[in-house]
Design a protein that fits this description.
Arc Repressor Mutant, subunit A, binds magnesium ion, alpha/beta, Helicase, Ruva Protein, domain 3, binds adenosine-5'-triphosphate, five-stranded parallel sheet, 15 helices, about 45% helix, Rossmann fold, globular, two-stranded antiparallel sheet, 3 domains
Length: about 350
């Protein structure tokens, strides 16, 4: 399964990308392209918080990788004019790891916890009073050492922003403590083209609209992938063309980079091929598909399937997942009659 080099269309940030992303992050909410409903509710929440001079409600952003969760958290801090401290679920081991951060927050500041579904249970419980009553119970040894005691410590009224790719793994009590819960969706090609136009301007790369459209189509509905492809196509344009990204230059560069014409990544392809080759196109249960591709069922449902359905490659039916006729054609298989009408397929 190892491919030697990272997949160019993976939605996860590649090791050297995290710092490079800063330059392309929108710095105002109105520069954040698309996700109109999310933006609108955030703008209302921001305006209300400013108006009442109160901290923003705790907010949760969820959705597949690379769609803008971290970007939104940073934007919220900017728009509100408050400080932001960043950490993530898996790096926090004990409640003690959070005490310093929490006590350093000033009124209205944001604590951003990425991968919030990976918080240990002890940390989650430690956060509940912090979120509800702006208080933490700090454990201290009681001298005898047998039983620990806790002393309450007051915090400023802060805002917790959580981000997760796996909403399904958040515990119900944790979910219940967020006043604002926003889901990010894959972006339609027009939005991606707009993001690319902005990025190209910042990077100083000449493009024409057909060039950005060509890249947008293959970006898997994901801004992170789009920006990555733009940079790779720019390199090609500079070396092999006159530097300008036209449709022809983009198409040629992406072909050389082995980018699928729909931007499907390795896992997308494995999922669809497994359904076609091992399960006769479906319907097949999500747990079975997950086992066949070695991914966990929740990630399959929350991260991979929404994209494959949006692109018309996968159908969810009451009896399971089915590959569509376009999935068959895409991988060079003749579509069976049943694939045109997955609901009448007999298992
Ligand atoms: N709506 C948008 N408009 C413009 N650029 C965007 C938008 N959303 C994301 N980006 C760009 O895509 C990149 C990835 O976004 P971000 O890091 O916020 O994703 P994420 O959802 O936090 O991903 P992960 O789940 O991996 O943490 C950023 O560099 C950002 O500039
Ligand atoms: Mg992030």
């Amino acid at each position: 399964m190892t491919r030697g080099r990272p997949q160019i269309t993976t939605p996860e940030a590649l090791p050297d990308e995290r710092s490079a992303e800063t330059a392309l992050r929108p710095s105002r909410l109105d520069e954040f392209v698309g996700q109109a409903k999310v933006k609108e509710s955030l703008q209302i929440a921001i305006d209300a918080a400013k108006h009442r001079k109160e901290p923003l409600d705790h907010a949760l952003f969820f959705g597949p990788p690379g769609l803008g969760k971290t970007t939104l958290a940073l934007l919220m801090a900017k728009e509100l004019g408050v400080g932001i401290r960043t950490t993530s679920g898996p790096v926090l081991e004990r409640p003690g790891d959070l005490v310093g951060m929490l006590t350093s927050l000033r009124a209205g500041d944001i604590l951003f916890i990425d991968e919030v579904h990976r918080l240990r249970p002890a940390l989650e419980e430690f956060l509940y009073p912090a979120m509800e009553e702006f208080r933490v119970d700090v454990r201290v040894a009681d001298g005898g050492g047998a039983r620990a005691q806790t002393i309450p410590m007051a915090l400023e009224r802060f805002t917790l922003i959580g981000a997760t790719t796996r909403f399904g793994l958040l515990t119900p009590p944790m979910r219940a403590r967020f006043g604002l819960i926003e889901r990010l969706h894959y972006y339609p090609p027009d939005d991606i083209a707009q993001i690319l136009t902005r990025s190209a301007r910042i990077l100083g790369v000449p493009t024409d609209p057909a060039g950005t459209t060509e890249i947008a189509r293959r970006s898997r509905g994901t801004p992170r992938v789009a920006n990555r492809l733009l940079k790779r196509v720019r390199d090609y344009a500079q070396v092999r063309a006159d530097g300008k990204i036209t449709a022809a230059v983009a198409a040629e560069a992406l072909k050389r980079l082995d980018v699928d014409e729909f931007g499907l990544d390795d896992m997308d392809a494995r999922i669809l091929k497994a359904i076609i080759e091992q399960f006769e196109g479906g319907p097949v249960g999500v747990a079975t598909v997950a086992a066949a591709v070695g991914e966990d069922p929740g990630t399959l449902e929350e991260v991979y399937e929404p994209f494959l359905m949006q692109q018309g490659f996968l159908a969810r039916t009451p009896r399971g997942r089915c590959a569509t006729a376009s999935a068959y054609r895409h991988f060079g298989f003749p579509p069976p009659k049943s694939a045109e009408q997955p609901s009448i397929f007999e298992s």
